[in-house]
Amino acid sequence: MARLFEFQGKALIAEAGIKVPHGDVVETPEAAVEVAKRIGLPVVLKAQVWVTGRASAGGIDFAETLDEVEGKAASMLGHQVKGQTVEKLLVEERLSIARELFVGITIDDRRKRPVVMFSTRGGTGIEEIASRWPQAVVHMDIDPRRGIYDFEVRELARRVGIRGELQKRIVPAIRRLWATARRYEARNAEINPLVVTESGDVVAADCRITIDDYAVFRHPELGIEIAREFDRPATELERIAYRVEANDYRGTFYFFQMLRKFKKGEGVIGFHGAGGGGSMMSMDAVLKKGFKLANFCDTSGNPPASKVYRAARIILAQKNIDGYFASGSGVASQEQFNSARGLIKAFAEEGLSVPAVIRLGGNAEEIAIALLKQFSDYWPAQLEAYGRDDTPEFCADRLSVLVMLPARAKQVKRFDYPREFSHSFKTMTGWVRFDAERCLRCEGKPCIKACDYGILELSDGVPRLAITEADAAKGRCVECLACELECHLQGAGGLKIELPIEGLD
Ligand code: SF4
Ligand code: SF4
User: On the chain, which terminus has fewer CB atoms closer than 10 Å, C or N?
Assistant: First the structure.
């Protein structure tokens, strides 16, 4: 789920007509002072970070004077709250609170429908409220097609003793929250606390909204960069990885950095899983061996070799890792040689310098393992490849042995790419380029045979597309990388598949 910051959520509910405190979001102490002058003192300064318990962690503070606003804003901006750097502050009027309530709308996956929860107690998490004061919490299913009627919300409020004038003010707030959640396809929209001020106003003092990942593309106005639930803003590498995933619907690629600052020799490895359950087991296996993970990565759902290549390059961009561990489901139906080809191209281009253990269990794993061994002269590091019969524990054990071995001096081959190209065609996410001069010198033309999809043919001794360029670009060239690898092994080096990675290259 893609989270919005408090100030973004408040802007959405304010647009729907729910009252929010006067204020603005700022990035400098000077701007905080300007906001305080405009809205009047006292004010509250709220760090815009995705953590719970901000107040106790120093992420919320109050200021009575402009000097205090400036000083406190300066001490919060650029500093960390529960591991997250504060880049923005919300400066708001300080409310005179008479009572705190809670209202939330969430998608109940079990019941397959939205549910509205309302409580006469707010301020702490709803789970804690519900367990401590169950009589103060009510909920109601919402039919997403017809929404909720006034009388239903009135009944909800009545069940927890909210009547009269207060009920009249709360009912529209709940209906408007539902309207916001529906409009922006939120999986969760929560106002906690929904404050009743001493003058009787009903005001949203805090707001958390998370948008359904699959709906994010319909809401470019929200400016969500990454449609995934992160408990902190995405790192540069995560942004790069997300763009890869967003631009290629084939298979799935997930990348999350677990450690960002570490040194060589600390036992931190790049982790590359394939398939949820298998990835988890593999992760456990390396953790039990005492390794730490620089990242979690998963490529599954039959991704093309090009996607696995990009995943591997992104993992290797974490320069201080001490090893590379790839292991996932042992019985994957996807053809394992696709993953192997992606890894080989990445390892050869990057000159893999840390030991790697690759466990590719599943369909055609023997071919995948053989391929990895065949190309082992293209990188200096030791790499061992295994299949389904070798457990993640055994493979993790092998990695712990390999990282202890001294680096070997080894003659390394390089992918001999042409510098100039005579012709090219576009694939879904890259280019296949040829050098006709080299191809004319090539005897076996193994690239033609390697293309199981039959989209290459010989024309005057040079490989060319046997289908239209438009069809190749739409995906008939599946970016399996077989032609390029055969060209390196047996050809004359007349082919290069370019797979750009925006932000990394
Ligand atoms: S294998 Fe390489 S060099 Fe030989 S024809 Fe194919 S692309 Fe050209
Ligand atoms: S041309 Fe054929 S072998 Fe080469 S990447 Fe495309 S589908 Fe694979």
Answer: C
Could you tell me which CATH class the domain 423-498 is placed in? alpha beta
Strand partners, 424: 433
| Per-domain residue ranges of the chain | 22-93, 97-222, 236-404, 423-498
**What spacing in Å lies between the alpha carbon of 345 and ligand 1's midpoint?**
17
The residue whose CB lies within 8 Å of the most ligand 2 atoms, and thus the one to mutate among 309, 458, 479, 498, is 479
Tell me how far CA of residue 46 lies from CA of 24, 91, 499, in angstroms.
Answer: 11, 6, 43
The CA 467 to ligand 2 mean position distance, Å, reads: 12
- Cβ 289 vs Cβ 269: under 8 Å: no
Nearest ligand 1 atom, CA 444: 4
Can you list the positions of beta strands (E) in 289-441? 292-293, 295-300, 323-327, 356-359, 383-386, 423-426, 431-434
Q: How many CB atoms lie within 10 A of CB 467?
A: 16
CATH number for the segment(s) 97-222: 3.30.470.20
Ligand 2 neighbourhood includes 499 CB (under 6 angstroms): no
CA dist 196 and 98 (Å) reads 6
Looking at domain 22-93, its CATH architecture is 2-Layer Sandwich (3.30)
Instruction: Tokens for 316, please give them.
Output: 């290797």
Start-to-end Cα distance in the chain: 29
Overall pTM surpassing 0.70 (yes/no)? yes
Q: Would the pLDDT of 332 be above 70?
A: no
Distance between CA atoms of residues 302 and 274, nearest Å: 9
* pLDDT tens per residue, range 211-256: 998 898 899 999 888 877 776 778 999 999 999 998 999 999 999 9
Mapped to the 3 state alphabet, what secondary structure does 344-387 carry? HHHHHHHCCCCCEEEECCECCHHHHHHHHHHCHHHCCCCEEEEC
Instruction: Quick: pLDDT tens for 350-398.
Output: 999 999 999 998 889 999 999 999 999 999 999 999 998 999 999 999 9
Rounded Cα distance between 148 and 252, Å, is: 36
* Ligand 1 first shell, C-beta below 6 A: 434, 438-439, 442, 445-447, 463, 487, 491-495
CB atoms inside a 10 Å sphere around CB 182: 16
Q: Is the pLDDT at 499 greater than 80, yes or no?
A: yes
